[in-house]
Design the sequence.
């Protein structure tokens, strides 16, 4: 493997005014709850050591409260470790002075946050340029770099909007552009996609992977979602109660879970928790409305090369399915709205359902299956191709 | 019932402290007072020398630029009414006192508020003092003002500043503290210095709240300037005070309406400024 970018050695973090006693108990092998009971100090991290290699995506995963957010914040000293050492390119961080620390944060790190943390009083462009502005870069240069970064994440043309005018997915693209604009060596991504809808989340995961193929940054990515970890991680660190439970490639972790905790995680994977319908479904690219004429509907189908189309209300409430045959029939009879020609009795599935609910449905019909959420809104579509591709992709991880 | 325990000599102590301060420092404060008073008088005379319609036009124009047309129209009719009620000079006196007091209160208050927001230690010291300043009956501030600044407008300004400053400090502090933690963290993550964080993030986001504090400071200044008529501040408060002494309810109410008009104009203009900034 390539060079070590970050070395973390025996880092512990104790929250509270008098960490000494807690540290001693930690050294004796006491666990988090015991220490909280005895000293009133909360342990965030207990004696963690690992390396981050240049150009890899390292995923830190664990449930909430496992210390993963504390850990990523230790890397750029947003949290100051209570004990241990962190070096970046050989430079010790824990003893760095304020100026040195600011310089390292400015030049080495870009960070992306779970809830975006965009500056509401700045435009998209000004947000993207923030890191450069902090470094006193010339206005013209930083404007250009910010524009380039926005282009990279597909936000060309949105420069003068304000964050609140953008959807969640687009806001996180701004967050990503803000981090990329400073051209950092290391990207820290703290649950960066956790607040996004499943479909947008998947797009962003793909995009991150393809961006990474071009840029070759070192990325530390936090998530609580094993599916996400398996998909984007070159290596995965599993955490529990502030300790590292296992470090390894996705295959390592799935094949040789190091203890019961990891095993339980992995078991859940096998129960198709990873493969929910949301993770394999496609976008319903075109839809027809009940008031559409049959020619309009046929035209939409021809454009997309599909033989049937979902009918939804303007607010995307799912109505039914119109096949090309029925639409053609309507044209013949010169009947105007497609209202009475579409099938209403269509079996729908929910985005959170496991994939295997699809098998019996798919066995019976060749028609696309609508994915509809609790509010009755159309979220996506599954055809046989999606299902096979999804299973193949999920299978290759195992 | 008689208490057998002697009273704690708090009264004597306070008087001794004030006497000490007066003996040793009054020559400075008196000097400041003289200079300031000359300035205030010049300004008052100057504005009163100008024809009222000109001043009204300028103020209406300002209201239109700073706020909007509705506020400008209200300003126009309000000031015309004041002119008609023969309260013009008194209103100018009051306005100038309010502007001076508010100006000083803001210049001191906002930096103190920023410091209180950024330094927990300072915050712990300042907040109880603010509670004290705000709950102490306003009249009490008038008494020590006199030995330091003498009877007149400067004493009025001094006690007004003390009375009106707390909201500026408090709301500046609050405005900065309520900037979401994750935004501050983001600014930190990109290596912002404290100063950059303050000027690029915290102050811009706190501006609407700070302006709400400034608005309250102006309103409190106005009410205190009226009370300060008792120690020789002239203006609308002086008219009210005269009316009280001569038991002339009509005159009192007329002057009171003048105060209400000035309050409404100042309030609407500062509110609009605050909101204008938050829209950006």
Sequence:
């Amino acid at each position: 493997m390539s060079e070590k970018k970050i070395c973390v050695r025996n880092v512990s973090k104790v929250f509270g005014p008098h960490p000494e006693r807690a540290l001693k108990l930690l050294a004796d092998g006491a666990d988090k709850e015991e220490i909280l009971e005895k000293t009133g100090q909360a342990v965030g991290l207990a004696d963690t050591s690992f390396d981050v290699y240049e150009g890899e995506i390292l995923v830190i995963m664990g449930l909430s409260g496992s210390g993963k957010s504390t850990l990523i914040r230790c890397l750029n000293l947003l949290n100051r470790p209570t004990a241990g050492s962190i070096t970046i390119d050989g430079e010790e961080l824990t003893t760095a002075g304020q100026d040195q620390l600011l310089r390292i944060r400015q030049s080495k790190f870009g960070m992306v946050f779970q809830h975006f943390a965009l500056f509401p009083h700045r435009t998209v462009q000004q947000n993207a340029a923030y890191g450069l502005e902090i470094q006193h870069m010339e206005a013209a240069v930083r404007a250009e770099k910010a524009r380039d970064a926005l282009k990279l994440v597909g936000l060309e043309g949105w420069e003068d909007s304000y964050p609140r005018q953008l959807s969640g997915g687009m806001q996180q693209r701004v967050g990503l552009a803000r981090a990329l604009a400073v051209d950092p060596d290391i990207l820290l991504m703290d649950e960066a996609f956790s607040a996004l809808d499943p479909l947008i989340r998947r797009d962003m995961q793909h995009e991150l992977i393809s961006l990474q193929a071009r840029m070759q940054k070192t990325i530390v990515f936090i998530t609580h979602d094993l599916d996400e970890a398996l998909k984007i991680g070159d290596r995965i660190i599993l955490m529990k109660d502030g300790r590292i439970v296992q470090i390894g490639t996705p295959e390592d972790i799935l094949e040789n879970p190091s203890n019961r905790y990891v095993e339980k995680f992995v078991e859940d994977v096998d129960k198709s928790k990873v493969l929910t319908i949301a993770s394999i479904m496609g976008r319903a690219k075109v839809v027809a409305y009940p008031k559409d004429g049959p020619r309009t509907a046929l035209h939409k189908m021809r454009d997309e090369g599909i033989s049937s189309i979902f009918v939804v209300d303007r607010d995307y409430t799912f109505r039914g399915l119109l096949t090309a045959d029925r639409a053609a029939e309507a044209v013949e009879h010169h009947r105007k709205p497609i209202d009475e020609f579409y099938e209403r009795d269509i079996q729908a599935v929910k985005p959170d359902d496991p994939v295997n609910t699809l098998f019996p449905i798919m066995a019976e019909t060749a028609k696309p299956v609508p994915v509809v959420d609790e509010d009755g809104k159309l979220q996506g579509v599954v055809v046989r191709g999606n299902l096979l591709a999804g299973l193949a992709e999920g299978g290759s991880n195992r | 019932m008689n208490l057998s325990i002697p009273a704690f000599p708090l009264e004597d102590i306070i008087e001794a402290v004030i006497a000490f301060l007066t003996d040793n420092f009054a020559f400075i404060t008196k000097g400041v007072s003289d200079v300031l008073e000359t300035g205030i008088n010049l300004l008052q005379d100057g504005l009163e020398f100008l024809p009222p319609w000109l001043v009204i036009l300028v103020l209406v124009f300002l209201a239109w630029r700073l706020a909007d047309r509705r506020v400008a129209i209200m300003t126009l009719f309000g000031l015309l009414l004041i002119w008609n009620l023969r309260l013009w000079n008194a209103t100018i006196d009051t306005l100038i006192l309010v502007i001076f007091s508010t100006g000083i209160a803001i210049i001191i208050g906002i930096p103190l508020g920023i410091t209180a927001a950024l330094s927990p230690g300072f915050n712990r010291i300042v907040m109880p003092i603010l509670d004290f300043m705000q709950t102490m009956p306003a009249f009490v501030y008038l008494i020590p003002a006199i030995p330091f600044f003498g009877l007149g407008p400067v004493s009025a300004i001094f006690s007004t500043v003390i009375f009106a400053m707390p909201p500026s400090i408090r709301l500046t502090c609050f405005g900065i503290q309520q900037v979401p933690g994750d935004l501050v963290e983001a600014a930190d993550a990109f290596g912002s210095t404290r100063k950059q964080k303050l000027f690029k993030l915290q102050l811009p986001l706190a501006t609407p709240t700070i302006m709400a504090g400034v608005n309250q400071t102006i309103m409190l200044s106005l009410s205190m300037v009226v009370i300060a008529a008792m120690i020789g501040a002239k203006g609308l408060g002086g008219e009210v005070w005269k009316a009280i002494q001569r038991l002339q309810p009509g005159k009192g109410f007329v002057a009171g309406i003048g105060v209400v008009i000035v309050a409404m104009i100042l309030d609407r203009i500062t509110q609009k400024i605050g909101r204008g900034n938050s829209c950006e």
Remarks:
- The two ends of chain B are 65 Å apart (CA to CA).
- Chain B is about 85% helix and 0% strand.
- The domain at 11-279 of chain B is CATH 1.10.3720.10 (MetI-like fold).
- Chain B touches chain A at residues 180, 182-183, 185-193, 196, 200-201, 204-205, 280 (CB under 8 Å).
